[in-house]
Amino acid sequence: MAEGDHRFRVQAAGASDWSAPAQVTSHYMAREKVNLLLLLGGLVVLATGAAIVHGHLTSRSEPEETS
Amino acid sequence: MLFAASISPATGWTVVILLSLLWVALGIHWGRKAKDSEGFTLAGRNIGLALGSATVMATWVTSNTIMLAPQFAYTKGLWGVLAYATASFGLFLFAPMAMRIRKLLPKGTTAGDFFHLKYGKAGWLLFLIITLTYSLSWLVTMAVAGGELLNVLTGIPYLTGMSIILLVCVLYTLFGGLYAVVGTDFIQSLIILLGIVVIGALVLTNLDLDDTHAQLAQRQPMLLQTYMPVALLSFFNIMLFGFGEVFHNNVWWSRTFAMRKGVAPKAFILAGLCWFPIPIAAGFIALSAGPLGLNVTNTNQVGPAVAQHVLAEAGFGPAAGILILVVLFCSIASSIDSLLAATSDLILKDVPKHLGKGDLPESKFRRAAAIVIMGTGFLAWGLSVPRWPLYEVLYASGPLVAALIWPVIAGIYWKSYRRGLVLAGIVAAATLGLIAYFTLGWYTASLISAAISMLFCLTAKLAARGSQHASPSPQKA
């Protein structure tokens, strides 16, 4: 559906009258913004996974803390 | 309503009463094992792999998994299905972290112990505010969902149904502590898995997959699109929301401490593997609504509506509604009991300890536990009565918990970082994440919060490299 204001109405099968129109405004986030957020999301997820994997590999031979 | 009052009130009451008596009886039975505070809060630190993975899986299966995942599929298509399933990735990534947590805190009892150890009192207070906001809103949304589902399925009035579900969970948690919670979770997880498998299998046998795809392509083509921005954004947002929920919350940390040595990593991975297909199955069920000829007027109920339809077509009759009721009751109860136990543990163990009053003496522990569990249950009940849209609070807590992802990673794995910068990052991330929630949309909030927190934490690590005074001073947990 294109951006902007749209009006819809429905008609029961076999009837002649239409409903009162309902107005819908559609607005989309700019594609550049979406792509930027997707890129950011991918980077954060990858970095999070990498930090955990790296942390696990470097710390797994460390002994238990005494407390 | 699509599936209003599919069971008679008498049948509904019978099922609810029988389930309630079963859980409370099991709670009393298993509660006999809890001889001291450690037995009550951590089940003696002796949970094995079967119970461990079952309790993790059952706790993560909520009414949202069964109601919201289908809605996601129905409104956001294939990416919506996969987006919801990414909530399991938090369990996978927590597995190696659980190993490290046990080494850092061999005698730890709560997530608060970790935050106090690594970030001092200020960090612990910040964590407490975030986790109580998130936990309470999750608890209340489960109670509200329980009341609404009982009302729609059986005609039991909302207030009565909601009160029963909360009361049952409070009672068996009160009597049995974590022993009761884990034991009932095991049974509930089996029921949930069986229900999903039966319903999923019936949907598959009722559908021609090629025809289903053709109908979707013709009538709801957007659901099959690969580039649907809100669905793609929700993919990363839900994943990061899930990371934040699992990495910070005492529900998962208490299970880590409660499991036998070496069990926690395997349990979290196994639970994640068992949980992952559930929202996908639930989503698939919802996508079949159109091809099955169902007129969906309320997308919130598309999952149970399709389930009831296919069960009725298969000749289940009234048993269809009973099966759905039992599965939903189990999914809600398995989360409420875990939240009650974990939240009350935080209040019982953390608050006196970290505010300088020391541990509660053993002689006073069970009485104090009873007061806190009942108090938490009563507070949740009070907030559930007006049916405020607290699911909005739960969704808005996404940026709050996502702000804790990197501080947890830093505390667990890094040897040096500037603590003040990390704490500033939590505040900045949570604030900006909330702004994003209200201005850009819910599907960006956790993502932005996690990104900002990550930036602050990485800066904190770099800043510490050149400084000898930057290592956080470890404090007694």
Automatic annotation (TrEMBL), chain A:
Keyword vocabulary terms for this entry: Membrane, Transmembrane, Transmembrane helix
Superkingdom, taxonomy of origin: Bacteria
Keyword Membrane: yes
Transmembrane segments: 36-57
Name of the protein described by the UniProt record: Uncharacterized protein
Organism: Roseibacillus persicicus
Organism classification: Bacteria, Pseudomonadati, Verrucomicrobiota, Verrucomicrobiia, Verrucomicrobiales
From TrEMBL, chain B:
UniProt-listed Pfam families: SSF
UniProt cross-references to InterPro entries, sorted A to Z: DUR (IPR031155), Na/Glc_symporter_sf (IPR038377), Na/solute_symporter (IPR001734), Na/solute_symporter_CS (IPR018212)
GO CC terms: membrane
Keyword annotations from UniProtKB, A to Z: Membrane, Transmembrane, Transmembrane helix, Transport
Compartments, record wording: Membrane
TM ranges: 12-30, 42-61, 81-101, 122-146, 158-182, 189-207, 227-247, 268-289, 319-348, 368-388, 394-414, 421-440
GO MF annotation list: urea transmembrane transporter activity
Membrane-related topology note: Multi-pass membrane protein
Primary localisation category: membrane
Gene3D superfamilies: Sodium/glucose cotransporter
Family recorded in the similarity comment: Belongs to the sodium:solute symporter (SSF) (TC 2.A.21) family.
Record-given protein name: Urea transporter
High-level lineage: Bacteria, Pseudomonadati, Verrucomicrobiota, Verrucomicrobiia, Verrucomicrobiales
